[in-house]
Amino acid sequence: MTTAGPPTPPSPPSPPSPFLTVAATATAPPPAGEDVLLDVRDVWQKLGGNQILEGVTLQVKDRVRPGQVTGQVVALLGPSGVGKTRLIRLISGLDRPDRGHICGVRACALPAGSVGVVFQSYPLLRHHTVLGNMMVAGIANGLPREEANTKAQTLLKRFGLDQRADFFPAKISGGQRQRVAIAQQLMRQKQLLLMDEPFSGLDPAALDDVIKLLIEVAHMDELNTIVVVTHDIRSALIASDTVFMLGRERAADGHITSGARIKHQYDLVAKGLAWRPGIEREPEFRELETEVKEHFRSL
Amino acid sequence: MSTAAPAPAPVPLPTDAPASPAAASAEPGRLARIFLPNRAVDRATAIGLVALWAAVAFIVWLVSPWESLPGPGEVWRAFGSLWWEGGMGPEMFTTLKLITHALLLTIVISMVLSYLTVIAFFRPLVGAVSKLRFLGLTGLVFPFTLLTGGGYALKVSMLTFGMTTFFVTAMAEVVMSVPREQFDHMRVLGAGEVRIFWEVVVRGTLDRALDITRQNLAIGWAMITMVEGISRAEGGIGALILNQNKHFHLAEVYAVLIAILVVGLLLDYLMGVVVRVLCPYVSLDRVAR
Asked: Which of the residues A84, B82, B98, B249 has an alpha carbon 20 to 30 A from that of A174?
């Protein structure tokens, strides 16, 4: 296990961008404890007059297994339109919350670029080949061209994409695009990787591959944390060690009365339902799946 | 106790399935496909269709009863006479020089203006330039003559103005419609705003910029006779056709028109080659119909 270093002061604010149109500024809260890898505290966000997020609070802590490098896979479950993607944008630093704080392992500011994000549509630059897209990610992160090339080739090989290096994105499958998008994020050591709906539209075999890939990437480093945003309950439970459920309050007639907040949390490690292959065949897993489904209906 | 009602006879459901396996494999033949809607045809068939329509057009021309339409032989002889004695070659060169000059200026001005739309401050300016396309060129001859002093400079500026207003309209739309996800993707990779601009806006829209250039070349080429007619002293294919009009040399007029059409098509083809060479990924994005 590696432990987090001492907390450093918050990063200076990034320069104003001609494309970015956010206004809110958050003052730095006290830094999170050393074992806390992601700390989302009382986050509020309004969009077009609607309160989307209302006091979202969650913490991801370092999981420790003696003698084993153990990263974290966290699932953020919630129905469509509840604000999951909005929360991803806030955690990744693309937008700023109206209220509240989001802190990483070493800093309380997570500027865009410090957190990896794999968007749902896996956007790649269509004018670059697969290798070119990897190189862009490396160079954007300050790697010299040679080093970026070497690292890109290594990652492509690791992800089984070395035969596709010279292909343009239009010529590769959806699953391959997803792997390129993940590999791009690994061109620079980022300990927090957010994935928006990585399980959607996959056949069962591809789903198994993606779950294996997520777990492999998470366990590359002790402080690695993958946050999977999804509404696929079963896949989320198989892949993750912690599950957060994002939902809204409803009146008796089913009318939504609030913005989204974390309504349920499951520690799968404490329940003995994490880090075990074939866990989905266990009766306890099925019981938990049923329980989560019940809760999901009320989100 | 109630008794069950007799079950109704099963009614066969309407189905799209073919009546027999033979019908399932009955794909329309090559000939039938060219007359059926929404069918793709192979390259050889497509070329054959173009050749067929060209032949039909030529035959119609050959047997045309209209007195005002000179026959192909007459037009061919007029073309030879204009080429060898009427200076059509040098006139065509003059026109090509003019359109190239105007097109280069249009590209530079339009690209700068279009890319500036990423900055909110410049958007009204770009919008205003785009709206100028409704002005038309005729009324602008006088102010442009005063501004440029006439002659070649006047023609270049008229053509540039005409093309720029359309170019900016199309290109600014392309830049503004770049999905936000593309910018976000580059931001989360850690790219700075200048690099994002280069990769997403400039390189990411290059194929569409070239397509717009291709369209504007056609617009400029269509305007060329009118613009060259404003000041005939420098010559050009537009001046040549207007001189033939004046003397009612009908065969010569048609010969120049056909030359304008053929050179226009050639320029369009060359632009297509440029797009394919610089943006090989474009052909992968296009789904064959």
From this structure: A84
> Which chain A residue shows the shortest CA-CA distance from B280?
A127
pLDDT in tens, chain A (299 residues): 333 334 434 444 433 333 332 333 334 444 444 588 899 999 999 988 889 999 999 999 888 888 888 888 999 999 888 999 999 999 999 999 999 999 887 767 788 888 999 998 889 999 999 999 999 999 998 899 999 999 999 999 988 899 999 999 999 988 889 889 988 988 887 888 999 988 887 788 888 888 888 888 888 888 889 999 998 999 999 999 999 999 998 887 778 778 899 999 999 998 888 888 888 888 999 999 999 999 998 88
pLDDT digits (tens, 9 = 90+) for B100-145: 999 999 999 999 999 999 999 999 999 999 999 898 777 888 889 8
Judgement on whether residues A178 and A246 belong to the same structural domain of the protein: no
Sequence-ordered list of residues with C-beta below 8 angstroms from that of B236, at least 6 positions apart, any chain: B91, B94, B95, B98, B155, B224, B228
Nearest to B118 among A18, A92, A116 (CB): A18
Q: Are residues A105 and A217 in the same domain?
A: yes
In this structure, are residues B110 and B167 in contact, taking their beta carbons and an 8 Å threshold? yes
Residue A182 resides in a domain: yes
On whether both A74 and A206 belong to a single domain, the answer is: yes
A184 interfacial to chain B (CB closer than 8 Å): yes
**Among candidate residues A130, A159, A189, the one where a domain is terminated:** A189
Which domains are seen in chain B, by residue range?
Answer: 72-279 (1.10.3720.10)
**Among B residues 140-199, those touching chain A with beta carbons less than 8 Å apart:** 179, 181-193, 195-196, 199
Which one of A163, A189, A215 terminates a domain? A189
Look at residue A258 and tell me if it is in a domain: yes
Report pTM: 0.77
CATH number for position A198: 3.40.50.300
A265: contact with B, CB 8 A cutoff: no
Beta strand A72-77 pairing with A225-230: parallel
- Both A207 and A95 in one domain: the answer is yes
Within this chain, do residues A81 and A40 fall inside the same structural domain, yes or no? yes
Please name the residue of chain B whose CA is at the shortest distance from the CA of residue A115.
B188
Write down the ipTM of this complex. 0.80
Express each pLDDT in A185-222 by its tens digit.
Answer: 888 878 889 999 888 877 888 888 888 888 888 888 88
- Domain span at residue A158 reads 122-189
Task: Check if B276 contacts A (Cβ < 8 Å).
Answer: no
Contact (CB<8Å) A140/B186? yes
Is the minimum CB–CB distance between B207 and chain A shorter than 8 Å? Answer: yes
